[in-house]
Amino acid sequence: MGEQPSSADAPLWAVVELDQFRTPEQTQASQWRRSLRSVSTWLGGKNNAEQQVKDESELRALPEVRLAHIVPPIDWAPVAMALAQQLEGQDAPVTFFITTPFSGHASVVTHWAEKHHVTCLAPPTLSEIAEGSTQWVERCVNQREWAIPALERYFLRHTQGIQGIREFLERALSGRLGQGVIGCDSWTYAFLQRAIGIDGAPVFTLQSMEGEQLSRYFAEIATHSGQPPPVYSTRTGKQVLANLKGNGHELVKNEASRKGTNKELQRLAANCRGHVGLAWHYWRERLREPKVDDEEALWLVDALAEAELAADTGDIATLVLHALLVHGGLDDHCLGEVLPFSHHEALNARLALQRKGIVSNCEGRWQITPLSYASVRQLLESRKYLVDPL
Amino acid sequence: MEEQQKYARLFNDIDSEALISLGIVLLSTIVLIIVSQRGLNWLGNRLHGQVRFRIFALVPMTRLLILITALAIIVPIIVEPSLRNMVTLMGALGLAIGFAMKDYVSSLIAGVVSAVELPYRPGDWVQIGDTYGEVKHVGLRTVDIQTPDDDLVYVPHLKLWDHAVYNANNGGASLQCVASFYLHPEHEAGWVRKALRDVALTSAYLKFDQPIIVVAEEKPWGTHYRIRAYPVDPRQQFLFITDLTLRGKKVLSAAGVQSAMLPPDAALDNRNAVGSASSRGSD
């Protein structure tokens, strides 16, 4: 009897065309659950809505050194290889590779460019963008092949700020700049698609991961430091990582045990819409070890208890969050430039969001924290703001 | 004697049991109406997009259903529901209404019509006569409209019979806004059109799944440009128009495009036109 290919057999890293991207199973259920929790938090205050098998007070955060061994940074090289396979035979002047925030489009395109000895173009300076200068486009004309790791650094959402990128994309899409690969944040892509029009260029993305694939991935990265430790869910008390045998590549094929194992990570996959970069942050933030030293096992505390946005979040905060996502993060000065209110108001709104843990600073830019991303996206979607296609 | 008995049969005997029943029904009706109105308004105010308007549309409809149910229970308690009795009762009521309460009852009937035809519902931005604003509540006799100046205007449903109702969003979340620019005739029109389109495209309030249209109209004193675009939420309309206006002026001014110097009579005409156009969301 023929069997549907399960996610157990699927490769971890699959680069697919944008219209083939599928969110994991239970994504809709996860959104309903988040809405319900938001309402219950609003009505009864923040509490532990779900029963816990393991008391979190018996657990503590892992030391940074151990965490670095068990959850090392994501190696994007396999994605770059998968992208290279997709690009073989592509003769379009521009190909886009888009991912959500924290999902590595810049690293992937940089890896790909290094491997294929392709020049990465330098982004324009802030003053060039702000003045609407198109001089920087002239610097790109003498390349036969080129790559842009992060297109979100090439524009600001105001009348002057889109002139340069419009000129660049018009030239690039018409083939006058040779052949290029552009890494782009999915929110930036959504904005540029509407504001400038970049239809027609092939767009690839990283396919979402199901819970089973996440389980395999987290088990594999933990095996770099030997056999992965058992990880249990504080919610269910069940093990959440796939069992790896011998050399670590042969999965235990017991279907029932596999389903039980993956339930918690399927929840995580659905909550992250299958984006491994986001899931990695949840995994890293939520791993705990027992305070009693003689226990080997690790625990995953309720993976979905992220910093949540209140349902009655005001317009100013909503506009700040949307601007940060569309630009892939902004500093305070640029944030004031792209918002329809004063710098002072923008700063106040940003500070309030920072206090709630919704935004944080990364390399001088304010961006949505990984654990807040899902609830921010849901809020913006419910209010009919432009959202990303992933 | 027989005549007295005939009229007495029109109404049932109102004993203490009937009085208690009437009291319970009236009380329940009032409580149900208050709870449903407040509950639905509370819920609608916390939602966004199309769902918000669907919830608001239920407010007058729910009240109407409760009232009809209450009447269906109350009338048989008071009146013996025979054909002759009903005709007599309706005749008496018609006489009273025709002489004394014509406008009041007309408003009530228009209220029922408004609950069925939905020319306006809470959350809609409407203009009735000289009043423009957001419908806050559709009552039995009046519709409560909150103007942009924060005045609450009670407009009787009676206006439905002989006044046009301009509904800018008609139960939806899309409301067109218009920002006007009056420019000196000497300018590069193609560039201005593109620049104004960019102004709309880069507004934080813009709703992307609706079109942006820049309209130019030649006048004796210059060119009148209008940006027609939609904000994400109808409640952002004035902020959106302000954003378009301020950023449009900045871009045009930086490019050296001068404003038109309107003759006083044209300025007066246009002020009136723009006042109604911008606030109505159409021009």
TrEMBL record, chain A:
Protein name as annotated: Uncharacterized protein
Native organism: Vreelandella boliviensis LC1
Automatic annotation (TrEMBL), chain B:
Pfam families (alphabetical): MS_channel_2nd
Transmembrane segments: 18-35, 55-79
Keyword Methyltransferase in record: no
Molecular function as annotated in GO: mechanosensitive monoatomic ion channel activity
Gene3D superfamilies referenced in this protein's UniProt entry, alphabetically: 2.30.30.60
Localisation: Cell inner membrane; Membrane
Record's keyword terms, sorted: Cell inner membrane, Cell membrane, Ion channel, Ion transport, Membrane, Transmembrane, Transmembrane helix, Transport
Predominant location: membrane
Residues covered by the Mechanosensitive ion channel MscS domain: 103-169
Membrane disposition: Multi-pass membrane protein
A GO CC term attached to the entry: plasma membrane
Family: Belongs to the MscS (TC 1.A.23) family.
Assembly and oligomerization: Homoheptamer.
General function of this protein: Mechanosensitive channel that participates in the regulation of osmotic pressure changes within the cell, opening in response to stretch forces in the membrane lipid bilayer, without the need for other proteins. Contributes to normal resistance to hypoosmotic shock. Forms an ion channel of 1.0 nanosiemens conductance with a slight preference for anions.
Name of the featured protein: Small-conductance mechanosensitive channel
